[in-house]
Amino acid sequence: MAVDVQTTIVIDRPCAVVAAYAGDPTNATAWYANIDSVEWRTDPPVQVGSAMDFVARFLGRRLAYTYEVVALVPGERLVMRTAQGPFPMETAYTWQPVDPGRTRMTLRNRGEPAGFGRIAAPVMAAAMRRANDKDLARLKKILES
Predict the structure, then answer these.
(1) In sequence order, what are the residues at sequence separation of 6 or more whose Cβ sits closer than 8 angstroms to the Cβ of residue 52?
(2) DSSP letter at 19?
(3) Degrees (nearest 5) of the Cα angle 70, 94, 99?
């Protein structure tokens, strides 16, 4: 069973500001509660082909994975994908101006868990949704303060 979780928030900051901050993997540890570290494999800044090693915690487990940027439209869309591990995943960010000072950001995680993860997919999706809601709220607080 595939997991596909999409979460949206409106942040009271211009689109360029939100995209620049959220689209920089170096900032991920500040606004993602479950991400412990990010290390660049390629030189910044983010571009198609960039690769970063992430270490995270999810459902009580430590996860280490490498994301590769597969699509980028600066200020509008960023898509990262990983293929290794028990849960190959794609993470996409989109940013849309609501008006000149506010941005609608959408965070989408989707993937196809293997093994036991396939059985636990509904639980994983619910946990992802809760985590994403909290992470976007944290991002909003950081950017609006």
Answers:
(1) 25, 38, 39, 40, 41, 42, 66, 67, 80
(2) H
(3) 150
DSSP state of 26: G
Element (H, E) at 31: helix 28-31
- The kind and range of the H/E element at 98 are strand 89-99
Preceding amide of 44 cis, omega within 30: no
* Helix (H) or strand (E) segment spanning residue 119: helix 116-119
Percent of the chain whose predicted confidence (pLDDT) is above 70: 91
pLDDT (tens digit per residue) in 24-47: 999 999 999 999 999 999 999 999
Q: Which residues of 110-119 are buried (b: 16+ CB within 10 A; e: fewer)?
A: bbebeeebee
pLDDT tens digits, 49-59:
999 999 998 77
Spell out the domains of the chain, with CATH numbers in brackets: 3-32+73-144 (3.30.530.20)
CA dihedral sign, ordered 21, 123, 65, 76 = negative
